[in-house]
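Let us practice reading a record.
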Amino acid sequence: MDIKETFWNNVFWHIEHKGLDARRIIGSDYVMAWKRQLNPTLNTVAKIACKIGIDDYAILFEGWE
């Protein structure tokens, strides 16, 4: 599994378990993110983490090997 797939899996896990709207969190690139094809920038990671209430960005990369 690559790092962007791990990131998006974790983002969607948090979105689902917190009852959030993925399109509001991710924006217009929602479909590419859902397909795990979107390459997140550090800025994107920071914005998404803030929107889903995560202080430690490393949580979004857990499970990556």
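A brief commentary: The helical segments are 3-18, 22-26, 30-34, 42-51.
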